[in-house]
Amino acid sequence: MTERYYDKGIAPKLTLGCPHCRAGARFESLYGNLPLPVMLADGKNGTKLSWAGRLSCLVCGLNRTHEVDWPREAFYQVAYRGEILWAFDRAMMVDTLAYLTAGADRDAVRRNSPYATRLLRLPKTFLAAKARETLAAKIEALLARG
Ligand SMILES: [Zn+2]
User: Fold this and answer.
1) Other C-beta atoms within 10 Å of 146: how many?
2) Contact present, 75 and 17 (Cβ < 8 Å)
3) Distance from the alpha carbon of residue 16 to the mean position of ligand 1, in angstroms
């Protein structure tokens, strides 16, 4: 698995695959701008982690509370060699594509992205030269969907 992605939690606003129609649906945490998961008191002197938020889909009209199963539900995800390359939303996947396909200026491309620290933690599998063409094709096909 790609646990390094989780170091600083997950963004509270995400694009998830709609459980009804598979389109990209908007998710917003119930806890404002705190990264997910949020630690809550469990009412028994302990704590529990919550991924709760509101999921809304403009395509099918779905609108309900939802517990995120991340990264399984990420709309912007591609599989490569048994690992999942995911992004919070379209903007992050666009920046990921630019980073992966950059040449000698890769570090500059990364630093100019608002997702720079996330891009820095991409697993090496995705950054290998031999991965570039396959991943770029998969990401471009995904971005063409929505
Ligand atoms: Zn939907």
Assistant:
1) 12
2) yes
3) 10
User: How many structural domains is the chain composed of?
Assistant: 2
CA of residue 38 to ligand 1 center, whole Å: 26
82 & 44 share domain: no
What is the per-residue pLDDT for 146? 73
* Structural domain harbouring 112: 76-145
Measure the CA–CA gap between 51 and 131, rounded to whole angstroms. Answer: 32
Question: What pLDDT is recorded for position 35?
Answer: 93
Going from the Cα of 131 to the center of ligand 1, the distance in angstroms, rounded, reads 32
User: What pLDDT is stored for residue 5 in this prediction?
Assistant: 61
Least confident of 93-97, 104-108, 138-142: 104-108
- Shared-domain flag, residues 133 and 92: yes
Query: 15: CA distance to ligand 1 center in Å?
Result: 12
Residue 107 predicted with pLDDT over 70: yes
